[in-house]
Amino acid sequence: MDGRDWNKFLLPYQQAVEELKIKYKGLRTELKARDEYAPIEFVTGRVKKISSILEKAKRLNVPLDQIETGIEDIAGIRIMCQFVEDIHRVADLVRMRKDMKVVYEKDYITHYKESGYRSYHIIVEYPIQTSIGSMPVLAEIQIRTLAMNFWATIEHSLNYKYKEKLPEDVKERLFKAAEAASKLDEEMSKIRQEIVDAQQDFEGKSGIVRKVLNDIQGLYFFRRVREAAQFQLRFNELWEQEDMWGLAELSGEVQEALQRARKGTSE
Ligand SMILES: Nc1nc2c(ncn2[C@@H]2O[C@H](COP(=O)(O)OP(=O)(O)OP(=O)(O)O)[C@@H](O)[C@H]2O)c(=O)[nH]1
Ligand SMILES: Nc1ncnc2c1ncn2[C@@H]1O[C@H](COP(=O)(O)OP(=O)(O)OP(=O)(O)O)[C@@H](O)[C@H]1O
């Protein structure tokens, strides 16, 4: 080790990780509180251990006095999402922030790694505020689905256990498992899209139903009792037969009747 005070060296990174975690967890809380869809499932973070920093510096040939710029993931957070589409929404949320600057991005989803690893990485420059002023810190934001995280966590622990000398057949099986996880993500996205479409369809239908019933109420208000009762009977029949075309037609007729009622004219 050189003459650095390593514990002091890690302080800004610890501060950056704590702040970044709070900010992205806060984003989830805020979206949920506004009843909006939150693309963030959960957030973790860590500061790289000194032994791991030194090992990486050696592996990447980074001189010890250039560690701050040569190693970009001393501060790192990880944002887990339910669906692949959410990853892109989170990436947008990172890009639009004014309190950090994107340095560059690595799309390991389109260009997955040889191991099968998938994730979206954004390296940001995040200024922390210290007693002697602002200090920029590099941080890595990894954005991935729950399935990608499941795979990466297990693969990481196996690599750790086998000291990065995994037997070839195990590597192959892990690669296949990564493909399977990716298929799972794809399938979940499709299912989700179908649910969203069905929901929109339902909202469209319930919009017509609400309109017909409101307009029938309007007819009662204008004392067009007989007309209103006839429409109500037709509505009941169409509703029972789940005849959406009939309901749409009826909606037009009721609307016209209501307009006539407002003007005080009869059919
Ligand atoms: N589990 C797992 N994680 C990976 C893999 N590849 C990359 N990562 C994660 O992504 C981080 C950044 O990886 P890279 O984008 O390759 O960056 P790098 O710092 O140039 O290279 P390395 O850290 O040596 O992989 C790593 O520190 C890991 O946390 C992989 O094959 N498996
Ligand atoms: N950006 C990150 N956010 C949260 N956790 C992370 C992040 N990067 C790595 N980790 C986790 O931190 C732990 C320690 O990993 P370590 O810092 O040694 O780095 P690594 O990502 O595995 O590898 P490398 O040394 O190649 O960068 C592992 O469990 C790893 O999954």
From TrEMBL:
EC number: 2.7.6.5
Any single Pfam family the record assigns to this protein: RelA_SpoT
Enzyme class: transferase
InterPro entries cross-referenced by the UniProt entry: GTP_Pyrophosphokinase (IPR052366), NT_sf (IPR043519), RelA_SpoT (IPR007685)
Span of domain RelA/SpoT: 45-166
Family in the record: Belongs to the RelA/SpoT family.
Name this protein carries in UniProt: GTP diphosphokinase
Record organism: Cohnella thailandensis
